Structure formats: C-alpha cells, structure tokens
Amino acid sequence: MATYSFMDVTASLVGPTGEIDFGYGSANADEGIVVSMGESKNTMTVGLDGEVMHSLHANKSGTIAVSLLKTSPVNRKLSLMYNAQSLSTTAWGKNVIVIRNKASGETVTARSVAFSKQPDVSNSKDIGVVKWEFNCGKIDQLLGEF
Fold it and tell me: Which residues of the chain are modeled with pLDDT < 50?
C-alpha cells in the first residue's frame, strides 16, 4: 500500500531578492500548496460529419497558492520579498518555484513567477490562514510514483 505525507514535500521560492523555503516545516495550513494550470492543453473541434480536430495549446501558465498559518514566520519573509520586488520591474516576475516530493519523485518547476498580490489578512477570533498566490509563466510537472 502506498503512503503519502506532506513531511516529504520541499518547496522553495528563489528570486532576485532571496530564497524562501515554504514546504514541510514552514507552518503550512491544511490547504498546503496548490498548483493550477491556467487553461486546458487541448481544444477539440467536431466537424459536421463527426470528425474531430485537436488543437494543442503551447500555454504552460498557471498559478501556485501557498497557504500558511497566520503565525508562520514565512509570511514576513514573503512580505519582505514582495515589497522589495514591487519596487522595480527589474526584480518583478523573475522568481522560480520548485516543489518536490522526495518519497515519490514528484517535481513541479515554475518559471517567470510573480506575486499575484498581497494576501488577504484577517485579525479575528480564529486567526486562520494567509494564502499567497503566484502567477507563473511556465509550469512543468512530473507526477511521482508511490
């Protein structure tokens, strides 16, 4: 029987203003790290006679969302990186995110990465989660085997 554990997940954001780890051990929230592709890889067109045509899209863009507990020290590091990079176009959109699962061999590499926005922040009875979203120009994924 195969076993998955977030304990095997490493993740890092590397860019012109530093490097930040946000995998296991970073006070990750239950929502973890979510990789979403921007659009379908294919469009299927069906002709009047029932024949089909497939159109392969070159687009590899998407988003990566990282959910951290409000008390995670990584939030401050990401906030400082966001503020530094937003000062100049020479630093904006030049990050790389790498996510690995060492048990399964799964690897996600995202290039041309920019912060989507400052995260929404709540100060309430139950503090909750800070969700960082990144726009990624190119995402390459290799799923693992458990």
Answer: none
